[in-house]
Amino acid sequence: MSPLSRTSVTSLATIGLFSIFPAAVLSQTSAFTDQATGIQFQRFFGARTNFGFGMALSTDTTSKSFIGQLTFPLSNGNGWGGWSLTGDMEGPLLMAAWSDGKGNVISSFRQAFNEDDNPPEVAGTFTLRPIAEATSVNNTFLTYTFLCENCLDAGLGLAPEVQSAEMGWALASRAVRNPASSAGVLDFHNSGFGDFKANLAGARNAEFDKWAALAGAPVTGAAGAKPFDVGAAGAGSGGSDDEGDGNNSSGGGGGDAGNDSDSDDD
Ligand code: HEM
Question: Positions of the region Disordered (predicted)?
């Protein structure tokens, strides 16, 4: 066998191995512009579920706020969608939104301490201020655009200066119990969940302050909201890329969830 053909055989064997054990590839965010407001997001979008989560940040890397936009389908008005500041569910600041069935979007901050129970509502210095111009809900779809004030903090899971971060998403079609309350009970994200890589450097925009000024009054949580537990948030990693962490192998589970790669922007 000539050296050349030996190389070819080795290459083929390598290709074969990769196709048997494909490397986990994280979905990436891509540019998306909201038509109602012109806000430019870096957005994760799952083509299978139609779940989207976009972020816009200030060019000031010490600014702790971001503008977020959740977009996802509802099933007869039911379901919820949410994001995590890291690729994990347990520990970091989470947020979920759903319909109250009366034309309003209800949202709340959550923190999970296990994967079995409804994550309790939490409160802290962070606030949600809806951007009404780009918020709507009906029986089949929800769009929620908001300023997440003081949400970027290493103690919550993601530091303000981070340029690229692994973050998480979740989508359920099941009805939230007691949906009129921000403490409404969430069941498992049966429609999908997973993590994605957020290009936060690409989400920074000099127009941020102008867009943030569209936000209305802060949403008030339910009376029983607990203080966010920084000790449980897994602080330290700052939520930045934790490749090699091995625990976050790109979602999965929840049926065929987790493979919502692609960043179709339609
Ligand atoms: C804002 C709300 C939520 C968000 C953003 C969220 C996000 C996530 C993410 C990113 C994962 C994968 C990473 C990890 O295992 O830590 C996950 C896993 C999981 N979540 Fe959630 N979650 C939320 C609410 C819930 C609720 C309400 C339940 C059930 C009561 C739940 C149950 C689970 C379970 C069982 C897993 C592990 C599934 C598996 O490994 O197959 N989650 N979640």
Answer: 228-266
